[in-house]
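User: Please fill in residues for this 157-position structure.
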Protein backbone atom coordinates (compact mmCIF):
# COMPACT_ATOMS: atom_id res chain seq x y z
CA UNK A 1 0.00 0.00 0.00
CA UNK A 2 1.37 3.40 -0.98
CA UNK A 3 1.21 6.01 1.76
CA UNK A 4 0.35 9.47 0.42
CA UNK A 5 1.75 12.75 1.66
CA UNK A 6 -1.64 14.38 1.02
CA UNK A 7 -3.40 11.70 3.12
CA UNK A 8 -0.97 12.17 6.02
CA UNK A 9 -1.51 15.95 5.87
CA UNK A 10 -5.31 15.39 5.84
CA UNK A 11 -4.99 13.18 8.95
CA UNK A 12 -3.53 16.25 10.67
CA UNK A 13 -6.62 18.26 9.69
CA UNK A 14 -4.75 20.27 7.06
CA UNK A 15 -5.12 20.66 3.30
CA UNK A 16 -2.33 20.22 0.79
CA UNK A 17 -2.84 22.80 -1.97
CA UNK A 18 -1.51 22.20 -5.46
CA UNK A 19 2.18 22.94 -5.87
CA UNK A 20 2.82 26.60 -6.64
CA UNK A 21 4.26 27.46 -10.03
CA UNK A 22 7.54 29.41 -10.05
CA UNK A 23 7.05 33.17 -9.83
CA UNK A 24 10.11 34.03 -11.94
CA UNK A 25 12.96 32.44 -13.91
CA UNK A 26 13.59 29.32 -11.78
CA UNK A 27 12.07 25.89 -11.18
CA UNK A 28 10.15 24.82 -8.09
CA UNK A 29 12.39 21.84 -7.39
CA UNK A 30 15.47 20.09 -8.74
CA UNK A 31 16.45 16.50 -8.07
CA UNK A 32 20.17 15.71 -8.15
CA UNK A 33 20.80 12.06 -7.35
CA UNK A 34 18.85 11.27 -4.20
CA UNK A 35 18.64 14.92 -3.12
CA UNK A 36 15.58 17.04 -3.86
CA UNK A 37 16.10 20.80 -3.58
CA UNK A 38 12.87 22.76 -3.04
CA UNK A 39 12.81 26.45 -3.94
CA UNK A 40 11.51 28.88 -1.34
CA UNK A 41 7.78 28.55 -0.66
CA UNK A 42 5.83 31.49 0.73
CA UNK A 43 2.81 31.25 3.00
CA UNK A 44 -0.34 30.84 0.89
CA UNK A 45 -4.03 30.23 1.48
CA UNK A 46 -6.22 29.54 -1.53
CA UNK A 47 -3.21 30.22 -3.79
CA UNK A 48 -2.99 33.78 -2.43
CA UNK A 49 -0.21 35.22 -0.25
CA UNK A 50 -1.07 34.92 3.44
CA UNK A 51 0.29 36.74 6.49
CA UNK A 52 1.61 39.82 4.75
CA UNK A 53 3.83 41.98 6.93
CA UNK A 54 6.74 41.67 9.36
CA UNK A 55 7.26 40.06 12.73
CA UNK A 56 7.82 42.68 15.38
CA UNK A 57 5.59 45.05 13.40
CA UNK A 58 2.10 43.97 12.26
CA UNK A 59 2.45 40.15 12.48
CA UNK A 60 2.17 38.43 15.87
CA UNK A 61 4.37 35.49 16.87
CA UNK A 62 1.29 33.23 16.70
CA UNK A 63 0.54 34.34 13.15
CA UNK A 64 4.23 34.04 12.21
CA UNK A 65 4.25 30.41 13.36
CA UNK A 66 1.13 29.77 11.26
CA UNK A 67 2.81 31.48 8.28
CA UNK A 68 5.80 29.15 8.71
CA UNK A 69 3.46 26.16 8.82
CA UNK A 70 1.69 27.31 5.63
CA UNK A 71 5.06 27.79 3.94
CA UNK A 72 6.05 24.27 5.00
CA UNK A 73 2.79 22.99 3.49
CA UNK A 74 4.01 24.56 0.24
CA UNK A 75 7.24 22.59 0.61
CA UNK A 76 5.18 19.43 1.13
CA UNK A 77 3.19 20.22 -2.03
CA UNK A 78 6.44 20.39 -3.98
CA UNK A 79 7.68 17.12 -2.45
CA UNK A 80 4.35 15.51 -3.41
CA UNK A 81 4.68 16.83 -6.97
CA UNK A 82 8.23 15.48 -7.24
CA UNK A 83 7.47 12.03 -5.77
CA UNK A 84 3.99 11.32 -7.08
CA UNK A 85 2.67 12.05 -3.56
CA UNK A 86 4.50 9.03 -2.10
CA UNK A 87 5.28 9.52 1.58
CA UNK A 88 7.62 6.52 1.66
CA UNK A 89 9.90 8.12 -0.98
CA UNK A 90 11.12 10.60 1.65
CA UNK A 91 14.18 9.06 3.29
CA UNK A 92 15.01 12.21 5.28
CA UNK A 93 14.20 15.91 5.48
CA UNK A 94 17.83 17.04 5.46
CA UNK A 95 17.56 20.80 5.91
CA UNK A 96 15.10 23.69 6.09
CA UNK A 97 15.99 27.30 5.46
CA UNK A 98 13.41 29.59 7.06
CA UNK A 99 13.37 33.29 6.22
CA UNK A 100 11.39 35.56 8.52
CA UNK A 101 10.55 39.12 7.50
CA UNK A 102 11.09 41.03 10.71
CA UNK A 103 12.04 44.31 12.25
CA UNK A 104 15.70 44.80 13.27
CA UNK A 105 14.73 44.40 16.94
CA UNK A 106 12.88 41.09 16.46
CA UNK A 107 15.00 38.15 17.66
CA UNK A 108 12.63 35.16 17.82
CA UNK A 109 13.12 33.85 14.27
CA UNK A 110 13.87 30.34 15.55
CA UNK A 111 10.57 30.22 17.47
CA UNK A 112 8.71 31.25 14.30
CA UNK A 113 10.61 28.63 12.25
CA UNK A 114 9.32 25.93 14.60
CA UNK A 115 5.99 26.20 12.76
CA UNK A 116 7.71 24.65 9.73
CA UNK A 117 9.92 22.24 11.68
CA UNK A 118 7.07 20.90 13.79
CA UNK A 119 4.99 20.16 10.68
CA UNK A 120 7.81 18.18 9.07
CA UNK A 121 8.09 16.00 12.19
CA UNK A 122 4.29 15.59 12.39
CA UNK A 123 4.16 14.41 8.77
CA UNK A 124 7.34 12.31 8.55
CA UNK A 125 8.13 11.37 12.17
CA UNK A 126 11.85 11.04 12.95
CA UNK A 127 12.62 11.18 9.21
CA UNK A 128 11.33 14.77 9.36
CA UNK A 129 13.97 15.91 11.90
CA UNK A 130 16.38 18.18 10.07
CA UNK A 131 19.14 20.74 10.24
CA UNK A 132 17.82 24.30 9.97
CA UNK A 133 18.64 27.95 9.59
CA UNK A 134 16.21 30.66 10.72
CA UNK A 135 17.17 34.06 9.32
CA UNK A 136 15.61 37.48 9.77
CA UNK A 137 15.26 39.49 6.56
CA UNK A 138 13.92 42.94 5.66
CA UNK A 139 11.28 41.70 3.19
CA UNK A 140 10.11 38.66 1.23
CA UNK A 141 8.25 38.05 -2.05
CA UNK A 142 4.64 39.34 -2.13
CA UNK A 143 5.30 40.97 1.25
CA UNK A 144 4.73 37.73 3.20
CA UNK A 145 6.20 37.17 6.65
CA UNK A 146 7.79 33.75 6.06
CA UNK A 147 9.42 31.74 3.27
CA UNK A 148 10.75 28.17 3.61
CA UNK A 149 13.16 26.23 1.38
CA UNK A 150 14.22 22.61 1.81
CA UNK A 151 16.62 19.82 0.94
CA UNK A 152 15.13 16.33 1.10
CA UNK A 153 16.75 12.94 0.59
CA UNK A 154 14.64 10.51 -1.47
CA UNK A 155 14.66 6.76 -1.89
CA UNK A 156 14.59 5.23 -5.36
CA UNK A 157 11.08 4.84 -6.85
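Assistant: Residues filled in for all 157 positions:
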Amino acid sequence: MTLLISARVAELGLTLESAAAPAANYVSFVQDGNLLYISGQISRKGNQPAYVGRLGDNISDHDGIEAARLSALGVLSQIAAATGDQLNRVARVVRLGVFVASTPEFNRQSAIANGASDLMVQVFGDVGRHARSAVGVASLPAGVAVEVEAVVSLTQP
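For context: The domain at 33-154 is CATH 3.30.1330.40 (60s Ribosomal Protein L30; Chain: A;).
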